[in-house]
Specification:
Number of domains: 3
Radius of gyration: 25 Å
Low-confidence stretches: 1-5, 7-12
Number of helices: 10
Order of helices and strands: HHHHHEEEEEEHEEEHEHHEHEEEE
Shape: elongated
CATH class of the largest domain: Mainly Beta
Number of strands: 15
Distance between the termini: 53 Å
Largest sheet: 10 strands, mixed
Structural class: alpha+beta
Helix content: 25-40%
CATH topology of the largest domain: L,D-transpeptidase catalytic domain-like
Mean pLDDT: 91
CATH architecture of the largest domain: Beta Barrel
CATH superfamily of the largest domain: L,D-transpeptidase catalytic domain-like
Oligomer: single chain
Length: 387
């Protein structure tokens, strides 16, 4: 049946109960029970578990494979997954990788710490999504009085070539801070995408600055005849089982919900709290210097390599000096501030806020996005633009 090493591992395998279990986890727990029964040579029990899974979803191909092996085991010894004669090797390998990913997920305990990428959620952001491509897992967090609280997690598939997308067609999933920027319903898509899709804001401002390109990175489902796909199966999108996508979708807010994708999640620690406090202080000082009409102090918050995407620091500074020369007073108010450290890029943080600007000759309100980077112990702005 499974490899001897896997079977031995399953003999002592513990299946933790978790609150708010997703369909993914329920199916994984059933699969783990079946494989543990195989490891204990209780093949009838294993077959009953698999049959239960297939009654829930007949298109669960991993369960179909295990069931086929169990039936085959009645006539001859089975040494591995997909031991049937003439079984397609590539498909079998995909299902082995899915089995390993799902078993590793079942072993995971409910997170105690918070991912370090959720320094601050704005009141408008009711939920946040964090993706760990290395563990084939999408985590959902709820904003409870400004603090992220774990809700559930889901098995996912990502790009065939893994993570850290660089260019169009490289079949990789991007790593970064993104936002849900649309919802495509089933009637606008082919069956391949399941019940719908949620396009993400790739490439973001940092991707463009770093020369990364491509498009069409979505959260989406699976074809109607497929329960799930192998861990690495997409062209770069994040793919969920259809029931899981529907559950996630009920929490997503277009243009608001952050989707943070990491190759490996880092968890929050005391150093993050100190960095967050120092960044908040720097943001407030930037606001204060702007409002005080001390233009040079205000400009000192911008890094030498600052850019708006089209305008570099020298031209930006010249324009600010010109504009401020015509001001007699300025008021600046920031609200709904969110702060997300950037995966894989040390000391880079994405800051979003609503900005109320009022002066003697102009008033406006806008959603703004800044990228702050800590260099030599000092936070500076490396990008600024409308969100």
């Amino acid at each position: 049946m499974p490899s001897r090493l896997l079977a031995l591992m399953l003999l002592s395998f513990a299946i933790p109960a978790m609150a708010g279990e997703s369909m993914s986890r329920e199916m994984e727990i059933g699969m783990a029970r079946s494989l543990r029964a195989v490891g204990e040579n209780r093949l009838d029990v294993a077959l009953n578990e698999v049959d239960s899974l297939l009654r829930i979803n007949p298109n669960f191909k991993l369960a179909q494979l295990v069931r086929g092996d169990l039936l085959l085991a009645r006539s001859r010894p089975i040494s591995n997954f997909g031991d049937a004669p003439n079984a397609p090797r590539d498909r079998i390998q995909d299902l082995r990788e899915e089995a390993e990913a799902r078993l590793q997920r079942v072993e995971q305990q409910q997170p105690v710490a918070v991912p370090k990428y959720l320094w601050q959620l704005s009141p408008a952001q009711r939920f946040a999504v964090v993706v760990d491509t290395g563990k084939s897992t999408l985590y959902l967090y709820e904003n409870v009085n400004g603090e992220p609280r774990y809700v559930s997690d889901f098995y996912i598939s990502v790009g065939k070539k893994g993570a850290d997308k660089v260019s169009e067609g490289d079949q990789k999933t991007p790593v970064g801070v993104y936002f849900v920027n649309g919802h495509l319903t089933r009637d606008k898509l082919t069956d391949f995408y399941g019940p719908g899709a949620y396009p993400l804001s790739y490439p973001n401002e940092w991707d463009k600055r770093e020369g990364r390109d491509g498009h069409g990175i979505w959260l989406h489902g699976t074809p109607s005849d497929t329960y799930s796909r192998p861990p690495r199966a997409s062209n770069g999108c994040v793919v969920l089982a259809n029931n899981d996508l529907n559950e996630i979708g009920s929490h997503l807010q277009i243009g608001i919900t952050p989707v943070i994708i990491a190759s490996k999640i880092d968890w929050s620690n005391e150093a993050d709290h100190a960095d967050r406090a120092s960044l908040l202080k720097a943001i407030e000082q930037w606001r204060s210097d702007w409002a005080s009409l001390n233009t040079e102090a205000y400009l000192s918050h911008y890094a030498r390599d600052f850019s708006t995407g089209s305008v570099a620091l020298p031209a930006f500074a010249q324009q600010k000096r010109l504009v401020n020369s015509g001001k007699t007073w300025i008021k600046v108010k920031l609200s709904n501030v969110s702060i997300f450290p950037y995966p894989s890029q040390p000391d880079l943080v994405v800051v979003n806020f609503e900005q109320d600007y009022d002066s003697n000759n102009l008033s406006n309100r806008m959603n703004k996005r800044q990228y702050w980077m800590k260099r030599d112990g000092r936070w500076q702005i490396v990008y600024e633009g409308a969100a």
